[in-house]
Amino acid sequence: MHLFIYNLFCKLYLIGIHIVALWNRKAAAWKKGRQNWPSRLENISLKSADSFTIWMHCASLGEFEQGRPVLEAFKDRYPSAKIVLTFFSPSGYEIRKNYSGADLVIYLPMDSKKNAQKFIELINPQLVLWVKYEYWYHYLTQLRKRNIPVLMVSGIYRKSQAFFKPWGRLHRYMLDAFTHFFVQNESSASLLRSINIREEKITITNDTRFDRVTAIAREAKNFPAVQSFCNGYQVIVAGSTWEADEEILSHYINVNNSIRFIIAAHEIDEEHLKDIEQLFKNTIRYSELIKNPAQSITAHTLIIDNIGMLASLYQYASITYIGGGFNKSGIHNTLEAAVYGKPVVFGPVYEKFAEAKAMVERQIAYSVSTALELEEVLNLLFKEEALYKKTCREAGEYVQSQTGATAKIMHFITENAFSLTGKTPG
Questions:
Q1: What is the pLDDT of residue 1?
Q2: How far apart are CA 321 and CA 393, in angstroms?
Q3: d(CA 254, CA 251)
């Protein structure tokens, strides 16, 4: 009965996507990206007697950033291995479809027994990395039947999830496909033990994103025009913002002309960029700034109108703001900002994010629900120098103290996974 409901859900989801694709850009990309996928796989060379293929699946871009350190560490150690990277969401695939670290980047076909059998047969993986969450019954069942090792990377579990409910039998069955769970915290490990996942199958590693953001910070790009815009000013960098974030930020920014503000919105279509320009005073787009840097004299809000700069922009901040905290799905990546030793501020929806909760508890991050609360926090940090310096120092120390997950996972792979696959990369 549970499997019938699951299959029905998948079919209805597919029908719904095809309908919504008539007017929704992301749904249209989801649909188009999956067309004729078997022929695309049949035209590449992944199946050969001596090849070793590792498949990493990510729901979206955030999960890719979590899995990326492991994937790249594997490729560094075993350069002859083939890499297949799959995404479910367009927001992951469209940004990383040209990722040079993989031999193939492709949408994961919608879950069905037929699709799972065909996909796995064509890519022929010897090792699978499943990042954080998103469980697909037929894919995991086929991997289990074929005795292909599946590692959960940066897994995190909450009591509210179906695995831990009386009716969650189908979901618990999916967990049986995993060879090993690398989880972010003890509470996740405890929940897995509560449903009889054996202790030896669980390792607490923290989150691989700590490794990723540390690497990004070491290689941060310098943007001379942005540096010039910021020189001599206190700076707030707001990343991955949505309309609700921008609304509460505008109340503070528009009355504090002595502060420079950089906003990198989650969506940068022309309509949204124009909305931001209407909301904030004295704005300039980055594309305009690099053509005429002198314009930075009169502007005090810089709007980033491209993708790819944000992770490096946080280095210019005095204080950072992370968007998404007024949406049901919650905040975006706080660690990209904290790694530079910067105070982090975000909206009220952050409970699903272990690192955000830990940062709030350590008072190196602040959650706000209103424009007034935001003003109080920003004024406190700007005016209390001792508090500000302490927050900066402890933010950087927190990120550094949590690194090392990638090394633990790679150690397991080299010591255990190859014996399970019966094959080693050349």
A1: 66
A2: 17
A3: 6
Look at residue 275 and tell me if it is in a domain. Answer: yes
Burial of 220 (0-12, 13-18, 19+ CB in 10 A): middle
Q: Do 365 and 359 form a contact (C-beta atoms < 8 A)?
A: yes
- Is the separation of the CB atoms in 333 and 354 below 8 Å? no
56 contacts 83 by C-beta, under 8 angstroms: yes
Residue 2 lies in a domain: no
Q: Considering only CA atoms, which of 159, 156, 151 is closest in space to residue 209?
A: 156
Residue 52 in domain? yes
Q: Which two tokens stand for residue 229?
A: 């815009």
Is the four-CA dihedral 202, 84, 416, 213 of positive or negative sign?
negative
CATH number at residue 316: 3.40.50.2000
| 237/350 same-domain check | yes
**Is 235 within the bounds of a domain?**
yes
Say yes or no: 160 and 263 in one domain. Answer: no
Residues 172 and 266 grouped into a single domain = no
The answer on 153 and 25 residing in a single domain is yes
Q: Are residues 163 and 310 in the same domain?
A: no
CATH at 128: 3.40.50.11720
Our measurement of the distance from residue 256's CA atom to the centroid of its chain's CA atoms, rounded to an integer in Å, reads: 32
**CA dist., res. 360 & res. 250, Å (int):** 24
Q: What is the predicted pLDDT for the residue at 41?
A: 84
Which residues have CB under 8 Å from 116's CB, separation 6+?
136, 138, 139, 141, 142
**Cα 240 to Cα 414: distance, rounded to the nearest angstrom:** 37
Q: Which residue has the tokens 């959960």?
A: 152
37 with 146, same domain: the answer is yes
Domain count, the chain: 2
Question: What pLDDT is attached to residue 291?
Answer: 87
Strand segments, DSSP code E, in 76-149 are: 82-87, 104-107, 127-131
How many angstroms separate the CA atoms of 125 and 71, rounded? 14
Query: CA of 242: how far to CAs of 96, 315, 368, in Å?
Result: 22, 21, 15
Domain that holds residue 272: 222-401
Are residues 335 and 377 located together in one domain of the fold? yes
Residue-level pLDDT at 47: 61
Write down the pTM of the prediction.
0.84
Going edge to edge, which strands form the sheet with 202-204?
104-107, 82-87, 53-58, 127-131, 150-155, 180-183, 202-204
What does the alpha-carbon distance between residue 107 and residue 96 come to, in Å, rounded to a whole number?
Answer: 11
Interstrand relation of 259-265 and 202-204 (parallel, antiparallel or unpaired): unpaired
Q: Which parts of the chain sit beneath pLDDT 50? A: none
Q: Tell me: do 264 and 332 sit in the same domain.
A: yes
